[in-house]
Each structure stands twice: as structure tokens, then as C-alpha cells.
Design brief:
Blueprint lengths: L9 H15 L1 H29 L3 H34 L16 H29 L1 H12 L15 H28 L4 H14 L1 H36 L1 H34 L9 H4 L2
Helix pairs in contact: 1-2, 1-9, 2-3, 2-9, 3-4, 3-6, 4-5, 4-6, 4-7, 6-7, 6-8, 6-9, 8-9
Length: 297
Amino acid sequence: MSGKTVSLGAPYRWLGESFAICRAHPRVIFGAAALLMAVALLPSVLQLLVEAALQPSMAVRWVLQAVFSIMALIVFPPIVGGFYRITHALHEGRPANAFDLFAVFQDGAAALRLIVTNLIFVVISIVVLLGLALAFGGQPLLDFIRAMGELQPGATSLPPFPDGLMALMSMLMILGLVIMTAQGLATANVALSATPLLAATGVGFGAALRNIAAFLLFYIPLAVISFVVAMILVLVVALLAGMLSVVNPMLAAALIAPVSLVLVLLLYALMFTFYYHAWRDTLGPGAAIENDHHLIA
């Protein structure tokens, strides 16, 4: 099954439906998005606290980073599945609250399926990145990627750009959008149906590729508009932060941090409700779990 073909304007309708469900259920949707954001930030916050308390060596820092990365890979995917289940319940007219986000952990099999689905897409992303790096630049490009990953905070210069970087970035943008869309659809499918993992991955890619024109006609203008709005917002925040830092440097951080958190909160709420509505139209709710206690425990 490769999913249904939708009209070119369908993604804009899904975005409108995402705004609609956010307006209709702001406490539940934004509450769940806030919890989702907190869970996403938790491993990084814990790592910073542990490193600040222990002042470990570089080797220990790498171990801590690996431990907290594994923690994120285990905890975050089931929470995303919980968000899809909450959205589905609200769409179907059933009651839900933000803390239902964690109900999926009561279903160990479902939680494991969501974790494995995420790992499949992590592996696919790594293979695509390495494959494109080898195809468009070979070892010099891999060395550049490694050097970028090893940059330390406060670095004043970047490694020299290798040949093939622009071709790589163009291909990465297109394939990254396909993978991101396929993962959103596949994760919703795993959370809301009994579809086998590999089949869910396949239909996610099938639906994304089948409707690639519709998705690109949505993503590209959205990216341009988002970039312009982001630049304006960054300029305004930078000016305000600069004025506040004259009074007290902490005031600048007190301005930037809440603005960043609010933007991430909006992004989470709209992104996951968008992919829920995309799942309904491309893969259909016919295979969705209909038993209420499976959706919201």
C-alpha cells in the first residue's frame, strides 16, 4: 500500500485543520506540546547539570552524551505516538487531556514499536547522509562533516568548504523533506494502527513519494516565508536583547529563552497535528485502532 493521492492544495488544508484543532482544544494540544517539548529537552538539561556538577573529562563527556542520546531515543518516540493518539481522540470527539501523552507507556508493545520505528528512520537518515557525502564529495566532504561536528562553542572560524557541498546540501534538503514526511506518516500509522513496522515504514515513504509534488509545493513556500519571518524576529529580538544587555546581561537571556520556547511550542503543536491530518488523508483512518482504551488509556 502506497497511500492515497491527494490534491496539490491538500497540505494547506491540513495546516488549516491543524490551526483549527489547536483553537478548538488549546489546553489539551498546547499542554501536550509543552510536555513533549519538556521531554525532548530533558536529556540535554540533565547532561548539562551532570557535567556542571562533575566537571568530567572529554572521554566521560562523550559517554554521558551517548547515555543521554540513548535515553532520548527510548523516551521521545512513544511520547510522539501519545500526541498522535490524543489528536486522534479529539478529532473523533472523545475526551482527552495533556497527560494522556504518557498513556502509551502502559502499552509496552506499542511503545516498543514506536521506538523501533524511530530507530529505523535514524538508520535511514545516517545511511542517506553518508551515501550522499560519498557520492558528492568523497572523503574530503566526510572530513568536513566530521570537523563541523567537532567544533567547540566559541569557535571563530569554520573548516574550509569542500567541492560538492552545494550539490550535497540541495540533495539533502529534498531527501530530508521526504524522510521527515515519511517518518511523520509512519509514526502516526504505528501509533494509530496495528500495521507491521516495516510495512508502516514502506507506506510512509510510499505516501510521501506518491504526493511529493503536493508536499514540495507546501514546504518550499513555507520555508521561504518562515525564513523571512525568522530573520525579522531575530532582528527584533537581537535589538531588544542588545538594549536590555546594557542594563543587565541576564535580561537579554530572560527575553530570548521564553521567545525560543514559545516558537518551539508552536512548532511542535502544528507539526504533529499537521502530520496527523496528512496521515488521515493519505493512509486513511480505516485501519486506526478503534478501541478507545487502546487510544487513550
